[in-house]
Amino acid sequence: MSGLAVSATINGDEVEYLCQAEETLLDVLRNRLGLTGAKEGCGTGDCGACSVVLDGKLVCSCLVLGAEVQGATVETIEGMAKGDTLHPLQTKFLEHAALQCGICTPGFLMAAKALLDANPDPTEEEIRFGLAGNLCRCTGYDKIVRAVQAAALEINGG
Amino acid sequence: MRFDATYQDRTYKSVGTRPVRPDGVDKVTGRARYGADFNMPGQLVGRILRSPHAHARIGSIDTARAEALKGVKAVVTADDLPDLSNGDQAHHDLLDNCMARSTAFYDGHAVAAVAAVDARTARQALKLIEVSYEVLPHVVDVDEAMLPSAPVLHDTIFTDGVDPRPTTSSNVAARSEFGHGDVDAGLAAADVIVERSFKTEQTHQGYIEPHACVASVNSDGTAELWVCTQGHFVYRQKCADLLGMDVSKLRVTSSEIGGGFGGKTHVWMEPVALALSRKAGRPVKLVMSREEVFRASGPTSATSIDVIIGARHDGTITAASAELRYSCGPYAELWAELGAMTSFACYDLQNVKTVGYEVLVNRPKTAAYRAPSAPMAAFAVESVVDELAQKLGMDPIAFRIKNAAREGTRSSYGPVYGPIGIRPTLDAAQAHPHMHAPLGPNKGRGMACGFWFNFGGQTCTDLNVNADGTVTLAVGTVDVGGSRASLSLVAAEELGIPYEHVRAVVADTATLGYNDMTDGSRGTFSSSMATISASRNAIEVMRSRAAMMWDIPVEEVIWEDGHAKAIGASYGNLAPLSVREIAEASGKTGGPIAGHSEMVADGAGVSFATHICDVEVDPETGSTRILRYTVIQDAGKAVHPDYVEGQYQGGAAQGIGWALNEEYVYGADGRLQNPGFLDYRIPVCSDLPMIDTQILEIPNPSHPYGVRGVGETSIVPPLAAIANAVSNAVGVRMTHIPMSPPRILAALDARTKG
Ligand code: FES
Ligand code: FES
Question: Which of B453, B455, B454, B461 is nearest to B599 (CA)?
Fold first, then answer.
């Protein structure tokens, strides 16, 4: 049972790991690297709970193989705050009660950050479609959308 | 505890504010640990083998090849979970659902499980287990299951609640009946009668976190279980019962929970994880896949309901009756009974009767889903109420107001109501601008009311005053959506200290007394009551410590604004003592300061809501868009309004999915066709508008602050409100939920042809 050797940059740190061919990036993050912030809600690309940014693109880490990440750069929820300083999205999610159980939150934050990075001033509709790949069963999305709007305003100096 | 009227006029300092929750930072940084985020040394990976058949007798299970595979540490079957039920049918059924004994009753029923060194080995091992099945005829539809020709799941079931007892076995496990008056006489006195039949399909709670646990059984018989659950004390009791363990030897820690909505009130694979660990002698982690969650946990009942209501021209309802058939999966439950109890709970009726039938089918064991059984009954009843209002030429809200239950009404399920909020929600709806906004073509507006009982139950808390005057609050109700914030607010309110000085945690089963689960909307209601009581007990201790410090009688010490104060002219020079000052001295005045509380939190206080909804139906495709949605609900007193609004919005969104999209689809072979989020489609962000909320506060007389449970009622009206809106938009009465595009097109078609 030989593993595949992979080196990648994860949240700015150089990381090396061995994984089996069928292991997903999500498996590797959670089971081999202890980065359990990304969640497995479905394993089939339908819920977005496992969202991470791979070489600048938002992906479902359950649909990426661990071995594919060789040489790549990965950003996960664990790298979103800079030290003690939360990202404005994280702060606004807290202030707007945009989470109830919170299992979807890491995925939403990664997706919302990718959205605002690409489109700093989205309309409500753009937010709703930008986050349509992430499922939340608790909130009805209302407070999530408002939190993203508030974060956009803050980032834009509003 | 009684409602304290003096609280009504008082200005709350903490309760009613909206601070950030104590577990918030962990949750936005990915540090919060959910069911699958915990590991133990030497842990194995567990996996479960499930029946591919809807109904099959299990001949033999050959595990030899799996056991021989390198890296496999244990294989268990029903033989490893012996039946200790001793005639207790509920216990037997629970065990049988965790691991099938002689018969697999549904597609996905567990038949064996393995623990291996890694996931790959565990998967391989499952393939090496050979099960010989004798496939039996199956039935998945609730109406078909009641036919005399249907295959019978258990030849030991003879409908309970029927006199004389039937002589042949059937799939109807029980009949229940509620009501009062004379329905026939009431119908005879009616000027207008509407009678209709309805169906609702089976839906899943759809929590984003699959069931997950880590079980570790030691050689001395002690064990630990880390698990996502709505009730770790209940899980401890059930697992100990099923495995024949002493309750004290099993310590259960509830992880952060990624949604439950009733689905995490039952044990599913936790006893199997413990059995695997016991056999392997190592910790075992067991996590369901999404497919397993759909096939083998949680769904709510599918239903078939007939309703008849009669009224006079002046709008007075003279009689109402309903017959409700609810699917239960393979084991007898009380879902139809709950439906029968809730059906007409919103109304003040002279003549009312409801009959419920619990129907066994070859589908997964049905679990509670947020106000279980009430949304389907409300769909049927509120649809007929709406149609009746139309026939009478009355405004739907005015018609409901005329017949609404009020204080003193004898409810259709028995009890007489105290002060209740149905009328205020209807008044608020009538006055709401949403009700008066213009509507364009293909658009329709609907409204509906909903009721839920709310539960209280066994509860306890420990409140420890730390040496620096901050407070740790240990509660036993799992926090499913912000209750640690609400309970911290309550402790802060009582003690008179800042919210930031209180830290609430959910204690494990070894460190706090028994608590019922977080279900029945009881979490904040009951634990806040226990927190108030524990706080007041701690205040008593602090008063006596202050008296000791001052060397004056305790009767002359009062508690005000977070301080002990000496009363009486002679003490004028004694400066008040803060919590911190009293706590700092505690080592010299008698040791640590704490307040405890153990209680049955009675008087949860029934809850009512009215929802308004606008839809647009595309006549070409049959697809429906929710344009606007308003929730009006009585909260008694909103402790943390953000999380109250969140409950209103979340329940409405789940109801919208149920009304328009979600359903279990079975093939002719009895296999579930859509066990994934791609084909079982829950609402996404782009499907919904903002969901407006209006919180009413009609104090619950049984709670010191007037708090009522708020978690569940919000899923009760949406099915009906949306069905009424769609029916108004298309001009056809919709009677089958979900109102998916094919069903709407079929209804439009029938209208054109009809
Ligand atoms: S776990 Fe990857 S999309 Fe659901
Ligand atoms: S907060 Fe629970 S799934 Fe989004």
Answer: B461
**ipTM of the shown complex:** 0.98
Give the pLDDT confidence score for residue B485 in this predicted structure.
96
CA B434 to ligand 2 center in whole angstroms: 28
Give the closest of B256, B652, B654 to A137, CB-based.
Answer: B654
- Could you tell me the CA-to-CA distances from B255 to A104, A127, B109, B370, B588 in Å, in that order? 15, 31, 26, 21, 38
Look at B646 and A76 and tell me if their CB atoms are within 8 Å: no
pLDDT of res. B298: 85
Domain-terminating residue out of A53, A77, A101: A77
The HSE-up count of residue A53 (CA atoms within 13 Å, CB side) is 22
What pLDDT band is residue A1 in, cutting at 50, 70 and 90?
A: low
| Residue B6: predicted pLDDT | 61
Nearest-neighbour CA in chain A from B484: distance (Å) = 11
How far away, in angstroms, is A63 Cα from ligand 1 center? Answer: 8
Q: How far is B127 from B66, CA to CA, in rounded Å?
A: 8
pLDDT at B18: 97
DSSP code string of B417-469 = P-S-SHHHHHHHHHHSHHHHS---TTEEEEEEEEEE----EEEEEEEEE-TTS
Last residue of a domain, one of A77, A98, A121: A77
Range list of β-strands (E), B260-395: 284-287, 303-311, 317-327, 352-359
Nearest to A101 among B18, B257, B645 (CB): B257
Domain residue limits at A103: 88-155
Tell me the chain A residues in contact with residue B36 when contact means C-beta distances shorter than 8 Å: 30, 36, 39-40
Are B520 and B455 spatial neighbours (Cβ–Cβ below 8 Å)?
yes
Say which CATH number the domain at A34 has: 3.10.20.30
Closest approach of chain B CAs to the CA of A7, in angstroms?
A: 22
Closest CB from B290, B650, B653 relative to A42: B290
- pLDDT mean values, one per 10 residues, chain B (754 residues): 64 95 97 98 98 98 98 98 95 98 98 97 98 98 97 96 95 98 98 98 98 97 97 96 97 97 95 98 98 96 98 98 98 97 98 98 97 98 98 98 97 94 96 97 97 91 97 95 94 97 97 89 87 96 97 96 91 91 97 96 89 97 98 96 97 98 98 98 98 96 92 97 97 97 95 82
Chain B positions in Cβ-Cβ contact with residue A43 (cut-off 8 Å): 289-290
Residue A83 belongs to some domain of the structure = no
Element of type H or E holding B290: helix B290-296
User: Residue B186: in which H helix or E strand, if any?
Assistant: helix B183-188
- Neighboring chain A residues of B690 at a CB cutoff of 8 Å: 142, 145
Chain mean position to CA A115: 11
Give the ligand at the shortest distance from the Cα of A39. Answer: 1
